[in-house]
Write a structure and sequence with these properties.
The chain is mostly beta strands. The chain has no helices and eleven strands.
Length: 117
Amino acid sequence: QVQLVESGGGFVQAGGSLRLSCAASGRRISSYAMAWFRQAPGKEREFVADITGRGHSYADPVKGRFTISRDNAKNTVYLQMNSLRPEDTAVYYCSVPSTGVGVYNLWGQGTQVTVSS
């Protein structure tokens, strides 16, 4: 079973940047699809970005501002977040499919990102 641990969240002013990390353990995930989701207070969890064998995809609200990447040697995926907005405030989760592809069903504990106006 893969375990995921997110880090890098924090408090930042609007227009600032943060880089989130998600370290995987228990299995090499170089061939796995990996994704970032977020959940704001009172809202459902939503897709942010993923990286698969076919490339990257992003939710419309973050296109051009966020970049997902991975370092297979470190078994880690990153989310570089630039030009942050107050509406980006949420708990950010990384996720992988338990089989490596398909539905994202394994989750980390999340990391809080707070953007002040």
